Amino acid sequence: MRYVYLDNGATSFPKAPGVAESISDYILNIGTNVNRGAYSSSFIAENTVYETRELLCELFHFNKPENVIFTKNITESLNVLIKSLLKENDHVVVSSMEHNAVMRPLNSLKGVEYTRVLCDETGNLPVEDVEKAIKKNTKAVIMTHASNVCGTVLDLEKVGQICGKHNLFFIIDSAQTAGFLDIDMDGLNADAIGFTGHKSLLGPQGIGGFIVKDRMNNEMTTFIEGGTGSLSDTEIQPGYMPDKFESGTLNIPGVYGLNASLKYLLKKGVKNIREKEISLLSRFLDGVLNIENIKLVGKTTTLDRTGILSIDFINNDNGLVSHELSKEYGIMTRSGMHCAPSAHKTLGTFPKGTVRFSVSHFNTLEEIDYAIDCINKIAKIDNC
Fold first, then answer.
1. Distances (CA, A) of 36 to 46, 47, 77, 241
2. I want to staple 158 with a disulfide (CB 3.0 to 4.6 A). Which of 76, 127, 334, 343 is the partner?
3. Are 29 and 90 within one domain?
4. Angle at the Cα of 359 from the Cα atoms of 355 and 360, rounded to 5 degrees
5. 343-357 confidence digits (pLDDT tens)
6. 8 A C-beta contact, residue 194 and residue 324
7. What DSSP state is assigned to residue 57?
């Protein structure tokens, strides 16, 4: 059977060339911790970790490597940013396209309220409504850069201008855009950006992080306290970066893998990767737009979107369709709610959900044509 991986919105596959080798080299030949030993292999690991912070600064056009914090994923990053910043009686503004990585932490905070700005049925954000949602006690705006359900890119540059005008903190969820869009932290007027290593950054699972400017860091409390390898003579958490937010042992194999994937991305060029993915998406859109018994969710063009395409198979259970695509045709997708119920309500696909196809620049036009043909076959079947 032919196998086609179209679930890159969940995690990228294959990973960037060199990722596996870099992780293997660390485990087989280095293996030491960082900030814990005064020997050569420890220094090698420390240099690689710092270099990875520098590579992330290059990617996000940031200039302070010590303010690049590593976590295990962007969900942890957003939890740290949200729960370390917000206090009782604070108010924040979010969009209706947010992932549960934003909404669940917000809903868990006692005395913190939020206003959800409603996007349209294609996922577009009415930016003017963001400003209308601001209150006297608004402290921050927290928004996804692009929907993980339909791929629509939100106009965060204008949102950042509003945040600057009202002196609000601006936190961006870049899970679906880091490695696909050129993200300029200052250009977006962002105070913090959460990232994950295993999606469009093409690195391994288990490594993510966030970048935060001093203005916001100075307002944040520590989230997890413990050993940092620094100030070990005191039982108080260091207040300087990155130690303030990096207690315990880092996922150093993950950092090594991310180091390799970032080098690949920066050499290949984010622009070139985006152009390839958009060309694949264009072919995909053209192929499915006229298929009967399916509904394309979100935008029908490649303008302001990522390489995600979501479909509702009208006469079928979308979960069964996703299973059938895998079992009979070897096409790997993700169905359901995609951990974003608010987005599905906005798009009109709640509670049924969709089948999500998400491309990588490693995919080929032949694979896209094959997927279109399989969708066409399944769409003709009732109750597959």
1. 10, 13, 24, 17
2. 127
3. yes
4. 150
5. 999 999 999 999 999
6. no
7. H
pLDDT computed for residue 41 by the predictor = 76
Backbone angles phi, psi at 298, to 5 degrees: 95, -150
Largest distance between two CA atoms of the chain: 70
> Is 298 found in the same domain as 208?
no
Is residue 333 situated within a structural domain? yes
300 and 208 in a single domain? The answer is no
In-domain check, residue 296: yes
- What is the tens place of the pLDDT at every residue in 42-86? 888 999 999 999 999 999 999 999 999 999 999 999 999 999 999
295 and 370 together in one domain: yes
Q: How many CB atoms lie within 10 A of CB 116?
A: 16
Q: Identify the helix (H) or strand (E) that includes residue 195.
A: strand 192-196
CA–CA dist 67, 319 (Å, integer): 41
Neighbours of 218 (CB within 10 A): 9
Do 277 and 263 sit in the same domain of this protein?
no
pLDDT band at 1 (very low <50, low <70, confident <90, very high): confident
Q: Which tens digits make up the pLDDT trace of 67-76?
A: 999 999 999 9
Q: Could you tell me the CA-to-CA distances from 55 to 52, 202, 265 in Å, in that order?
A: 5, 14, 10
State residue 369 phi and psi, 5-degree precision. Answer: -60, -40
pLDDT given at position 384: 66
Q: Do 39 and 162 lie in a common domain?
A: yes
Tokens, residue 382:
């009732």
ω into residue 351 within 30 of 0, thus cis?
A: yes
CATH number at residue 344: 3.90.1150.10
Q: What count of other Cβ atoms lies within 10 Å of the Cβ of residue 157?
A: 13
Look at residue 285 in the predicted model and tell me its pLDDT: 98
What is the spatial distance between Cα 350 and Cα 274, in angstroms, rounded to a whole number? 30
Which of 237, 253, 268 represents a domain boundary (last residue)? 268
As a whole number of angstroms, the distance between CA 311 and CA 304 comes to 18
Rounded to an integer, what distance in angstroms lies between the CA atom of residue 258 and that of residue 242?
18
Sheet holding 208-212, edge to edge: 68-71, 208-212, 192-196, 169-173, 138-144, 91-95, 113-117
Number of CB atoms found within 10 A of residue 1's CB: 7
